[in-house]
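Q: Is it fine to ask for two folds in a single conversation?
A: Yes, each is treated on its own. Send the first.
Q: Here.
A: Result:
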Amino acid sequence: MAALEEACGLIRRLWDGERVDHDGRFFETKQAYLHTRPQQPPPLYISAFHPGAAKAAGRYGDGLWTMADPESTPELIETYRGAAEQAGRGPGTIVLEAGFSWAPDDADALEAARVWKGAVPDEFYTDDWFDPEAMHEHGEEQVSDDEFKQHFIVSADPDEHVERIRELERLADSDVIVKLSNQSGPNALEAIRIYGERVLPKLR
């Protein structure tokens, strides 16, 4: 967390056009300078899966990027907004990421996305896990199919995808982007067609 905050401070100074001498705990720079800068600095979205990172996002970020989890997301958004207010900054865009899987039947949709159980356990975001195979095995042991479907949108019914996305949008009562990751496996291209014809038009 300390490294994230130090890095964000350096990024802001460089984007502001400073020539930066810095001898910090994690980073060292000598006359660092961006010789080519855009007229408008790019937005700095900070990924956060726990309150500490959400506070850093509020202090330094232009937005918060997190997983769309109905249980944990509202608290992270509240923490982010509180930190932004304390820093005298207005809160920015909330980016909520969610995976989805579509197939002609529910069972195939679940099987296509099953490997992503290895991304569900909270400890993967805070503890030292490095082996993808071990993470997948741990996810299979810890996460039931029903629990997994609470984290991912898994269904053969396009209308269920529509309703789940609307639920995600309601997690943030402000500027929100729902970023969807297509995990439909062998049905990925057909899932894009289904979304284009039967999901996205109902969300516009």
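Q: Second one now.
A: Result:
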Amino acid sequence: MSREHQLPPSAACLSASMRDLGYSLETAVADLIDNSISAEATVVDIVCQLVGPHPYLAILDNGHGMSGAELLRAMKHGSASPRDRRKAHDLGRFGLGLKTASFSQCRTLSIVTERDGERSGAEWSLDLIDEKDEWILLILDSAEIDAVPLADRLTPHGTLVVWRDLDRLFEDETGARRDEIVNDKLDVLERHLSLVFHRYLAGEVKGRRRIAITLNGHTVEPFDPFCRKNPAHQELPEDIVRIGSDAVRLRPYILPHHSKLSAAEYDFYQSRSDFISNQGAYIYRNGRLMAWGDWFRLVPKGEATKLARVQIDFPNSLDESWTIDIKKSRARPPHAVRERLRQIINRVVGRSTTVHRGRGQRLFEEVDAPVWERYADQGGIRYAINRAHPLVAGLMTRVGADSGRQLAVLLDAVAASLPVEMVYSDYSLHPREVAQVPSDEKDVVERLRALKDAFADDTTLGAGDFLEIVRSTHLFDANMEIAKRFIAEEFV
């Protein structure tokens, strides 16, 4: 008959293993801010201090704080079961995030908290755990609490989390190189927080007050991935999927074409988001962004669909169905949600394709004879130079039959060697930097004169006809005022 035998894990070995669950600085800090939001904080200050012999990173909030007993529970590994039903606005999950997130970046975790005039402090030291091979938690006395960095800034209710011995954050570097690495990570951290908590930062989460997050005194501004402030964005009707008594809400959006963004908007979005890789579903748990940029293999990512987004909201009561991981950076929709997403995805993607291709289609339709023509035949799509364009047709006539055949081969070679992949890559990442037109006024005028000389034998060509030819070439799209002045002077 079997017998029970207690076999607790090695504290030193397990704590070392827990450091490698895959947290980055930004996901670790976001996990701690979840706790601040759950504690109903309205202000969260992040301070990274590199000056002095004892660098630290601290997160200070004005939430409701904890009693001494609550602090001990919070410091316990597995302080809450994922099966427990949490409060409606609780952003926690496993009762591990505070510890695992902190240990992924540091070796010493100190917490000071205050509620109702009672101030408590506790500290985990991985060095002590390694030495004793026991889960030994240090309970701080009043003098030790006062010595914790920023403890003097703690309000009558709130919590201070301090990371010290920042071995992972510094990557074993020192001096200027260390500071450079940390500053790069802090820049990524700010961008991450501005996206993950954008609805909290904007005060859009129902039943919760707006929060303010600062990083070294700099206010973190919300980054809306749906560009809703721009009037050219499109918001499609919401769909609701019922799972038991809970509702999952799906709201599709279509981003504006980059030509519809102001210079400031374009710079803001281009510096914080890659349209191609970030298309897809944006999954929110209690208003907090969990995962994004995935179509869950329901449709391939592509250039034409890069403007499509679907906001999906679910409550924490459905955590088990969504297979949330410890870092709260991965979530997979349950079957019912996937099926509904499959039903609406063609409509969303179709709208995105329309917006994205709209400009390209107009280039072909706005003149009777465009320079380029698009053909969809024999199951493929190809692009070719239009032989009927006045500039091409006139040149073909003047060069004669033999040279005309050589010119035709050249035009076919130009079309066949169109660097589609290079254009695709450049346009995907930097659409506004792709420009095919001259910018110097002297060059513009020289090209206009050369274009006019190409039709010197056409005595019927008038100012209006020439203007249409100018527009058809798209060489002068950014210099139409110069072109119109040239035409007014030359076609008197």
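Q: Anything structural to flag on that second result?
A: Two points. Residues 360-366 have pLDDT under 50 and may be disordered. The two ends are 110 Å apart (CA to CA).
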